[in-house]
Write a structure and sequence with these properties.
Structural class: alpha/beta
Oligomer: single chain
Strand content: 15-25%
Number of helices: 9
Radius of gyration: 19 Å
Shape: elongated
Order of helices and strands: EHEHEHEHEHEEEEHEHHEEH
CATH architecture of the largest domain: 3-Layer(aba) Sandwich
CATH superfamily of the largest domain: Response regulator
Number of strands: 12
Largest sheet: 5 strands, parallel
Helix content: 40-55%
CATH class of the largest domain: Alpha Beta
Strand order of the largest sheet: 2-1-3-4-5
Length: 230
């Protein structure tokens, strides 16, 4: 379930991009001001950012800061002019793709999927992490000979953890990602869902969910867990 954040200065552009992405099954949210963009990225893990080249006074500088803060996020810049020198500036700043001005709706979506595919993330919502396959369309998790259909919250939680094996997520980040900012979910609820996942898959050895004392959780694949124990 890929989360894509769009940042355009024009309301019509924000609505167009968000609508196109949602039609393709992505989880898409639009932000307007720069403060809202930074706040959103600080509190919610995103898979991809699509940003207008004219979004900020120094958009390349903003992209550079975002890239330094999150090496995993994919960034596509929607250019306002067909200028190779400007494209180079954005790519050097950390953008993964520059989308040409005047790109039509179909090509826009194809470019988004291509960026995800190049990064090893299947735009058809299949996540492969080691021997684990997660299908967001059916909410199924397959590892070894076990295939289970998970409740939505458990699936989203595991999907987030296995999207970035070895990455530590705070409890607040996980609760925000899975239950949203408007939910009054407690840390106890998060712990219950983690324990359910451990009970379901703990004996398979396909992955391990480790608690990081005072911080949160991370998922580890067998080779990473073995390295930690050496």
């Amino acid at each position: 379930m890929f989360r894509i954040l769009t940042a355009f200065e024009q309301v019509s552009e924000r609505r167009r991009a968000e609508s196109l992405l949602k039609q393709e099954g992505f989880s898409a949210v639009s932000v307007s001001g720069q403060r809202q963009l930074i706040s959103y990225l600080e509190n919610r893990q995103q898979d991809m950012l699509i940003i207008s080249s004219s979004y900020a006074e120094d958009t390349p500088g903003m992209i550079r800061l975002i890239r330094e803060a999150d090496a995993h996020i994919l960034i596509a810049a929607v250019m306002q002019t067909d200028d190779h020198a400007q494209n180079r500036e954005f790519l050097l700043a950390g953008a993964d793709e520059c989308i040409a001005p005047g790109t039509d709706d179909e090509e826009f979506i194809l470019i988004v999927k291509a960026v995800l595919r190049r990064a090893g993330r299947d735009a058809d919502q299949i996540l492969q992490a080691g021997s684990v396959t997660m299908d967001a369309r059916s909410m199924t998790v397959t590892c070894v000979k076990l295939c289970q259909t998970l409740p939505r919250k458990e699936f989203l939680l595991l999907y987030k953890l296995l999207s970035y094996p070895g990455k530590i997520f705070t409890r607040s980040q996980l609760m925000m990602e899975v239950w949203g900012s408007s939910s009054e979910v407690s840390q106890a609820t998060l712990n219950v869902h983690i324990n359910r996942l451990r009970k379901r898959f703990g004996k398979t050895g396909c992955f391990y969910i480790k608690a990081i004392r005072g911080i949160g959780y991370k998922a580890e694949l067998p080779q990473e867990a073995a390295a930690d124990n050496t």
